[in-house]
Amino acid sequence: MGTVKYTARLNTSQLHELLNSSKGPVAKNLVKRAVRVESAAKRRISSNPKRVDTGRLRSSITWEIRIYGNMPIARIGTNVKYAKFVHDGTGIFGPYSTVIRPKHAKAMKWKSKQYGAKKGKYKGYAFAKYTIGMKPNPFLTDALKAAKL
Is-contact 34 65, C-beta < 8 A? Predict the structure, then answer.
């Protein structure tokens, strides 16, 4: 039997395009995963514990594909400032594990349809000397499980 000689040439520019292009199959797979995570995060924010009042946070959850170094990455998140407090919790449930108290007043005041005064000067407002805070809803962290195929 004779010897068989085989030579393979690697086209690095095509390989680079395949792996790192925003239009290549790797990026397309990332898009599919990002859409799944976004959808899962939006479902999660609407349940257990429910954190939707106006829908602003839920509708702000988006994704984008970026090139980081030479690799495409998917970024899923929100630009709403209060999202961190919903995600991580506040008060005794949050990172500082302490009751929330007013700094410069006797009581805190906030708008509340459910607990606010029903009539008078303070209609629609609730007052408290302190609050224990709100439990976290790690909607983004929990949604990452949806990225698995």
Answer: yes
